Amino acid sequence: MKLPEIDLCLIAPEIIVAAFGFFVLLVDVFFSKRENKAYLGWISLVGIFFAGALAVTQAGSVKSGFEGMFISDGYALFFRITFLIIAFLTVLISMGYTQREGIAFGEYYALILFATLGMMLMAAGTHLVIIFLGLETMSISIYILAGMMREDKRSVEAALKYFLLGAFATGFLLYGIALIYGATGSLYLKDVASYIASKNLLRNPMLLMSLVFLTIGFGFKIASVPFHMWTPDVYEGAPTSITAFMATGVKAAGFSALVRVFFSALPGFRPDWTSIMWLIAVATMTVGNIVAISQSNIKRMLAYSSIAHAGYILVAFVAGNDLGVSGILFYLMAYAFMNIGAFTCVILLGKKGEENTLIRDYAGIGFKYPLLSAAMTIFLLSMAGIPPLGGFMAKFYVFSAAVKEKFYWLAILGVLNSAVSVYYYLRVTVLMYFREPEREITGLQFSPAAVAALVLAVIGTLYMGIFPSNVLSFAQKSIAGLM
Amino acid sequence: MWVVPAIPPALFLVLSGILFTIGVIGALTRRNAIVVFMCIELMLNSVNLSFITFSRFLRSMDGVLFAFFVIAVAAAEAAVGLAIFVMLYRSRETINVDEINLLKW
Predict the structure, then answer these.
(1) B81, A167: Cβ pair inside 8 Å?
(2) I need a labelling partner for A179 at 20 to 30 A (CA). Which of A91, A150, A315, A387 fits?
């Protein structure tokens, strides 16, 4: 019997992330008396940085390993870097926030690292078992993180809702995988695609059912309508740093697996999924934007805006050409910077026992905290899609991909939606600069790490808006070999 | 001697589909969080039944392997889920999902 070849270099970034997760847990046990847990955050940052450096050294080579279950290609590289950036920024904003809110537990950072590990596996898996395990590693860590504020009833409620609906969605995803396995006899994405092509199974009812189930399963993770009901509740209740992590990381991971599975395993079903996804994309954009207008809580408003952004990304998914798929990658990276940045502002504007998450709390802060408000304005304008910011270029690529594939209505509806979204993003900006404060917000403590994250997010948003071609050409190189 | 006649694999798949449907309906209609979670477990286990049927039918071990992974993941999920229910009961003294409604617009 021949043992399968094991190439550990291939998963070196994943190993580093996992090892640092365990290391953080271990260090926490030995220094459990220490009140300030920020040093665990610094350890995590070192781990994330190392993993990123290792991932970059693998750039340019396409290597498959573990019997073809795992691939380290450009696509995996792009997503690894995106997830590591997201984790890096999340840890930075968490250090002050967890201390302030009394949730500075050692396992907090370890769980962020484990969730990142799951995301990285989802993007690099070419076998449905790996993708499923990555998804669950991520989800289970995040169920716990969402309920980290044990004393806060809203946080517990968020954890419950996310857990029940997440597990429910997992059931659908699994049934979809089981039907694919039954119809094709394989769990390898490439083998599934070649079997379907060779036997001409395009009208096989089992595979059509599995397409529906996979759409439901992934639809929950990326928060697309009609599977979005949990999003506002969970985003509002969870600790703000975790909300930022969920809105960017989980969404990016969901899209990475969705694109990989649909484009490499089920490319023959393109006409079938295009019509479903067209409807879902339009519904997601419209519901997200319309409901966001009437929100009074900024975390909830950002939750609905994140639903709308999932809709824009689905527009590129429907287009499905090279520009579309690289547009998805570009969008997710740009969204990571601007959304984490916006949540960082939300965190910095709060203090212990006084979260200040109502939109009217933002009245008049423009002159009191000029730099914070300027940063918040940049992120909101970027999300609204105003040039020269990252969000504008992301939307530009997404909609031009749709136009290129002659989905004119989709592009028009997307642009109209984007115009609607300007209203609620600008409302916050107008409140900040042109209204008198309703009450004084004083005694804010700006943690240096969170300010560093804010600066990085501003730089990222501006860079992706002003020099988009660098990131776009990286994204275009990344998707070679995917389709 | 009495011999058990071979059961056609299609019947197992039908059973799995019925169990899955019961799980979905239960998860959507029941109000006790633990019962909802049990219905979700039923969904996962009906999928396991499908995997094992396909595995036997296709003479490949992949499906059996997948079923083991699903069992392991379901156990991890149950541990986290029950912890969340305990935490919820401590703060609210109820695990009825209809009464968990602080967050809404």
Answers:
(1) yes
(2) A315
pLDDT in tens, A338-362: 999 999 999 999 888 788 888 888 8
pLDDT at A34 over 90: no
Element housing A44 (H / E): helix A38-57
* pLDDT (0 to 100) of residue A28: 92
Determine contact: B23 vs chain A, CB below 8 A: yes
ipTM: 0.94
| A5, burial (CB in 10 Å: exposed 0-12, middle 13-18, buried 19+) | exposed
| Mean pLDDT across A313-327 | 93
Q: Which of A304, A159, A115, A147 is nearest to A225 (CA)?
A: A304
B70 close contact with A: CB closer than 8 A: yes
Nearest-by-CA chain A residue for B33 = A164
CATH number of B9-92: 1.10.287.3510
In the chain, the amino acid numbered A43 is I
Beta carbons within 10 angstroms of residue A483's beta carbon: 12
Domain count, chain A: 1
Nearest CA in chain B to A163: B81
Residue pLDDT, tens place only, B32-77: 999 999 999 999 999 999 999 999 989 999 999 999 999 999 999 9
Instruction: At A227, list the tokens.
Output: 């599977």
For residue B47, which residues of chain A lie inside 8 Å, CB to CB? 171, 174-175, 178
- Asked if A178's CB is within 8 angstroms of B54's CB, the reply is yes
- Tell whether B11 lies on the interface with A, counting CB pairs under 8 A: no
Residue A417 and residue A385 in contact, taking contact as beta carbons nearer than 8 Å: no
Q: Which residues of chain B lie closer than 8 angstroms to A233, CB-CB?
A: 103-104
pTM for the model: 0.95
Residue range(s) defining the domain that contains residue A158: 8-478
Q: How far is B58 from chain A (nearest CA, A)?
A: 6
Residue partners of A424: CB distance under 8 A and separation at least 6: A289, A292, A293, A295, A301, A305
| Nearest neighbour of A187 by CB, restricted to B62, B84, B87 | B62
Instruction: Tell me the pLDDT band of A168, cut-offs 50, 70 and 90.
Output: very high
